Automatic annotation (TrEMBL):
The chain crosses the membrane at residues 771-788. It comes from Candidatus Schekmanbacteria bacterium RBG_13_48_7. Keywords: Hydrolase, Membrane, Transmembrane, Transmembrane helix. It comes from the Bacteria. The keyword Hydrolase applies. One of its GO terms (molecular function) is protein-arginine deiminase activity. Pfam families: PAD_porph. GO terms for cellular component: membrane. Residues 590-761 form the MAM domain. This is MAM domain-containing protein. GO terms for biological process: putrescine biosynthetic process.
Amino acid sequence: MPKKLVTIILICVFVICGMHPCVKAENRRHDLRHGKLPRIMTAEERIEKAKMQKLAALYRLLVPPSVRINSPAEFENQEGILIRWDYGWTDFEDMYCDMIDAIQDVAKVYILYGNASQKTYVEGVLTARSVPLTNIEWIRGVTDSIWARDYGPFPIYKEDTTRAITDFLYYPGRPNDDAVPGVLTSLWSWDIYEENLYFEGGNFMSDGYGVCFVTDSVLSANPGLSTQEIKDIYWDYCGCHTTHILKSLFGTIGHIDMHIKLLDVDTVLIGQVAPSDPNYDNMEYAVNYFSKLTASNGNPYEILRVPMLSGFRTYTNSLLVNNLALVPTYTEPEDTAVLGVYTAAGFTAVPIESSAIIPLSGATHCITHEIPPPCSPPAVPSGVTASIAGDNMIEISWTPTGAPGYYIYRSTTDCSTNMNLFATAHSSPYIDSNVSVGITYYYTICSVDSCLSGLSTCVSETATGYCLIKPEFDGVTSVTNVHDTVCSLKLQWSPATNICGTAIVYNIYRSEDPDFIPSRSNLIAACIDDTEYLDWSFLEYKHQYFYIVRAEDNSGSARGNCGCGNEDDNMVMLDGVPTKLGSIGTYFEDFESGINGWQTKPAGLWHLVNNSTCVSPYNGYHSPTHSWYFGQDSACDYDTGSVVYGSLLSPIIPGITSTSKLSFFYYRHVEPPGYWADETTVEVSKDGGRSWQSVWSKSSNNRSPDIWISSGDISLVDFAGKNILLRFTFNSYDEYDNDYPGWLIDDVTVTNAEVSGPCDTGSPIPVFENAIFLFFILGVTFSVFLVIRKET
């Protein structure tokens, strides 16, 4: 062989295999994903999200319906199914043809298309595969992606029985998708109600009776809104009088349809994985959650389980349409048993082979959306009466209409003012036990069966018994780090207004869990006759504690913690982190002295390394010699044969200021540009990890140079005055092209933040230490406040 040829061959081998493990040819799947927008929000879209939300507020009306509304359930009768063909690609044509063929037997198929040639092409494909065109309606509308579930309409029924659409914000890089609800309302002459909540249809389930389910991914998508504000939006725009927020899955889009499915008003399908799976706890959390709920028809939920296969191959991402279940299948042995579960639940189960589409984070449910039929309202309840059923009890009864549910509205003013929904019922009578002596209550009722009936005749009754009106209290207003030698936090609040008693006291609740609910188990101080409280009981240095303060009167007619008074039920929660006196300075972590409070959750492939050789010829660190590495030391890649993901969490970083900036150094070598996967994201939480805001994000479309580089300064102005957590997340989103070194992190810096020394853990404070409690239970008039603290 000539010497020149040998040299060329050696150079080629070095280029392909030299600085990282040789590329595995059988691991390539770029043809599937190239040019397709995934169901997830891409790294580029995450960065533009906040900017788009502010811009949208300038041109969207943001006026909710002024009448009563309700969201129909997916398992109820449907007029048709909206779908968007994957134009320009043939990967999914078998799947589309099978779905359209099956749906046409029971409902109309609405197909979105952008131009005449697209329509002609699809008609040709369907005809060639003997799929009839008899029950198809074509809707012209340019789109950016196939995910009709997420950008499609949120249909609602209005009280006048007309249909309307709620339009939430969709991903900022897909304006044509975001415009689809407007296209439909113009075509069908429906009303449209716009709201600037970032929210996708795959993260929404309604039971048809005002009970809705979402996951906590909506909190992270909208960091400027509180949990209650988001629930209020669902009530105003979707008619959800109750919204349950469940835990999302790690490593996928976070939508509820990836692991939970309502099959009926009292039947729920939940995915199942092995105990070793990072998502095991979150799926079992859902099982436990539903096991404690009562469905809208008064029954406990029947919980059915189906497996979730590797690569997030889900069986809950099915489409239900008029007793038909189009179930994603994957040519696996589990397919048969899963189809049997749907059949046993009363559906005709149709398998839809979905192996090709699932790497894009969705299946049959994600590319479709139900269009409900015109509403036929149930009868208006008649024979409504209200009568005394005992002390602090009013019985409301009516002649049943045959509807499966009823809404009960109540006012303390009159029959036409402030008449608000306060209870739901599935049968007559209903006992209202939340009434107070001497107050006249006005009631009216409607029937609920997907849509709402008109309101019944208004009736009224005056309650007997005891005064049970809770104090008016705005909750805790500040939690301040005292910076003492002993770890201490100072709580303050404004005085409450007494209604029933002659005095007020306060109770304090605390926890390290930001999702805690005030109870005797987390009550740390009771009967506080003041508007501030200094807490040092078992507080530990740099732990994050959450507090709720509640007011209690001295009426003695309820079950309050201090003398059985009426305690208010506010959920205002503030947090604090105790440290010793320090100064504004720089938080810096180079990982040379160990983990130092950093943790992995879920770990994935994150681990602390000492001068990793996987970035040769460069150092395996930015500053000698340790760094965090997402990858495998043995192979110098993140190829496990499946989707890989994991998060690295910082300890709490207190005292962020308006001039604080985050920076870090990283080495990042992932699959080639042109594809949306292999996402590396940095997020910040200001509420103990309940929600996260993305501040830095790159996918494989943003290829980094194969050297250690700086992230640059990232402003933390949005978190000024808060105590924060940082989260570094790697997510491959698929099992393809994972044979690159991965991601290394070093030298994390936060400037202009609080730098303090350690404080000492304080001794316990008795819950009822305040002597005023003794006077209270002896009947002496005074005010008592309860404070609840939560620690994380």
